[in-house]
């Protein structure tokens, strides 16, 4: 599953941090961990964290992790996010966290996202086709 990180300021006090389970206060930096689903499989899943509560960065194995929308933050806050990401990368024993991190703008991400959705859709179609042919093979064997 494709994943990315979306950063921004909390728009309200309503979102809970999945680590400490406290609400993220409006205008605080929030870190969204987003799992992208193939089209037709429901909405993307988004989990929010306080910046300080982020302890790992996950993503697909051997793939770059996109960090989206960082440019919308104030200069100092961008710095905090980059420091946090660096710190996690350095302190991580886990291979999955030792990936290249790319900082993307919303626009760059959107283009990427469209591509990801297409890829997922494509893979899903391939899988369906594979299953279809598998069934055909099985039917053949029965004959
Ligand atoms: Zn928290």
UniProtKB/TrEMBL annotation:
Record's keyword terms, sorted: Metal-binding, Nucleus, Zinc, Zinc-finger
Coiled-coil ranges per UniProt: none
Origin superkingdom: Eukaryota
This protein's record includes keyword Translocase: no
PARP-type domain residues: 5-89
GO molecular function: DNA binding; zinc ion binding
GO CC term (a single one): nucleus
InterPro entries noted in UniProt: Znf_PARP (IPR001510), Znf_PARP_sf (IPR036957)
Keyword Cell membrane: no
Subcellular location: Nucleus
Alphabetized SUPFAM superfamilies for the sequence: Glucocorticoid receptor-like (DNA-binding domain)
PROSITE patterns in the record: ZF_PARP_2
Any single Pfam family the record assigns to this protein: zf-PARP
Name of the featured protein: PARP-type domain-containing protein
Annotated organism of origin: Paramecium tetraurelia
């Amino acid at each position: 599953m494709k994943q990315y990180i979306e950063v921004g300021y909390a728009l309200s006090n309503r979102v809970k941090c999945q680590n400490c389970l406290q609400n993220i206060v409006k205008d605080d930096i929030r870190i969204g961990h987003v799992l992208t689903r193939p089209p037709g499989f429901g909405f993307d899943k988004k989990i929010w964290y306080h910046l300080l509560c982020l302890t790992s960065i996950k993503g697909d194995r051997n793939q770059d992790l996109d960090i989206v929308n960082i440019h919308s933050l104030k200069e100092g806050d961008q710095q905090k996010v980059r420091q946090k990401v660096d710190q996690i990368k350095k302190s991580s024993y886990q291979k999955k966290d030792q990936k290249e991190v790319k900082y993307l703008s919303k626009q760059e991400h959107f283009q990427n996202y469209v591509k990801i959705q297409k890829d997922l859709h494509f893979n899903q179609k391939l899988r369906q086709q594979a299953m279809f042919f598998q069934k055909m093979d099985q039917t053949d064997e029965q004959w």
